[in-house]
Amino acid sequence: MFSGASIARQSAGPGGALTLLDGWLRMRPSTDCAAFRVEANSIGDLFKGMPARRKIDPTTKLVAEWPLSPAATRGSSVRARDIFLEMRARLACDLRDLLRIESRVLTLRLPEGSDVDVDAASAIVSKAMRDIEDLPVIPREVEDILAISSGERHRWLRDGRLQSAGTRTVKLRGRARKITFHVFDPRHIEDVLDRDLVTGWREEDAARAAENRRRAAVKAALKRAQKSGRAAAGIFAWPHRRMENGSLGRGGPIAPLGHCSH
């Protein structure tokens, strides 16, 4: 089994894929927390096989830690990672590397000999973690929590079964266009999960799809029957129309009965 990093190294050549990936990784993170999470998700899709955790330097000092509760992560490793990115984006650039995630625990570690003011970083993270359970759920997290596909999310959002908590528009660094996406209330997603509504929705979709296929088959059969009927009517009506016009084939006009032409 090859990791994402090894595959990237093997497939990269001069001017190859690593040039693009290097450009992604060198982009400055957006100041908008949602933009940073979406940007990080896009990069993460390229490295699904890469280990999420970095090696811990034994010389670093543990300053503070914040466990991620199940109520905050909803049992999703994707959401746990996004919460970490959300907290990291709120820190100053020189403090972001101090925050890490270790087995669903956010840790703030200070390198040996560093004089960085970690108290400010600790205060920022502690304040943000108070309302972490109310952090809106972004589309990628919804798909992971409910174990649904992107198509199902779009369909259920369109017909109202998945209730949007609003939209968010962000502009990622290095991209010209803005991205707008729906966010969801974590309590609504938890309710859908607890009541196992996804199973019922899939059964409803399957029944509706079967009914649509049946109706389409009946409609196609009627259309073929009408087409065949029109064709048959045209074949039988053709000689009568020719006789009414006084000619049949190449023999010229039909002579009246009892009359002989010399």
Would you kindly provide a written description of the structure presented here, covering whatever features stand out?
The strands form 2 sheets. This protein has a 3-stranded antiparallel sheet, covered by helices on one side. The longest helix has 48 residues, at 197-244. α3 crosses α5 (77-89) and α5 (77-89) runs antiparallel to α7 (139-146). The protein has helices at 4-11, 17-26, 33-46, 70-73, 77-89, 118-129, 139-146, 150-158, 186-194, 197-244, and strands spanning 61-67, 99-101, 105-110, 167-170, 179-182. It has a domain at 26-195. The protein has 262 residues and is mainly alpha-helical. The chain starts with a helix and ends in an 18-residue tail after the last helix. The radius of gyration is 34 Å and the shape is elongated.
